[in-house]
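User: Can you predict the 3D structure for this chain?
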Amino acid sequence: MQEVSIKYGCNPHQKPARLYMKKGELPVTILNGAPSYINFADALNAWQLVKELKAATGLPAATSFKHVSPAGAAVANPLSDTLKKAYHVENLVLSPVASAYARARGADRMSSFGDFVAISDKVDVSTAKLLSKEVSDGIIAPGYEEEAMEILKKKKRGNYVILKMDPGYFPEELESKDIYGITLEQLRNNAVISKETFKQIVTECKDFTPEAIRDLLIATITLKYTQSNSICFAYDGQVIGVGAGQQSRIHCTRLAGDKADIWMLRQHPKVLSLRFKAGLKNPDIDNAIDLYLRDDITEVELQEWETLFEEVPAKLTRREKEEWIQSFDGVAYSSDAFIPFKDNIDRAAKSSVKYVAQPGGSVRDEDVIKACNTYGMAMCFTSLRLFHH
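Assistant: Here is the predicted structure, written as structure tokens:
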């Protein structure tokens, strides 16, 4: 098959639309549903991310994509009881593949609502059962167990998009993109990110633990498929915050840092002990927790929010939040381009960042190195810019 007709493009008025290969057969097969233009855009970017994560770490990988950027990504790593509760999976038996997706989805549960999923390995029953409980638009993977397929086909009244990707497919080296009827062409981003990428350590602290290298691999490969400018925080084998598509790098860092803080605070004992009214669905619980953790909640939101609980809880104080966030040790931070000002490091320090990876090459590199030394961070220069547009 060389061509697939699509109902419309990014928006309903953008017709006609299609997916096609200029040469050869399409490496992606539609097993269920009618994928949209945006579904395919998410799927093909997401597949590259998990394929590279699996190659770099040797572990099954998963990502949760929304609007052509990852909301989360992770490798297979067992979940603590605390994370299981925070991710609403405490009653599920998770395979390694399922644990990777639970982590990817758990990075930013609000952004992952209605996501497109990519899995590096064959989708098993455990992963399908997990997905059956989440609001998701579709999935791409190299294969599916028969029972897992049957479970997934029941989602969205039988319309859940299921794509199978040929794991042996390699694209041509040159890629092109049309903008306003004009074609741009470039060598595709075939940069390989590996442990060797993080060898040039430029700070006084040079202690990059194996866990830090793993998390920097996850963060940096995630950035390769995130709309630029972008910053990624990672911890414990998963993304915990992505700042994507911002014009200013400090805004990327603030956005990613705020999401990382929420990820940490969702595990606070006071959050885990919140008593919601019976029958409340997980997306509503996630939204309620977000409001619980926000400082800028309006009076109207407060009145609506209070109706969700069996008993209205006391909110966390600023000091409680700061102390809890600082209890996490060894957060990794990666940047898709050089860090131009030390304010990015100042903000990262508030979210317990210990390890930093960036290309280097700014006229203020020394200021950034000095800031890292002040906070006791270890930073490496990758000499690899990873803009993605």
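The chain has three domains: 3-165, 191-265+324-381, 273-315. The first strand starts at residue 3 and ends at 6.
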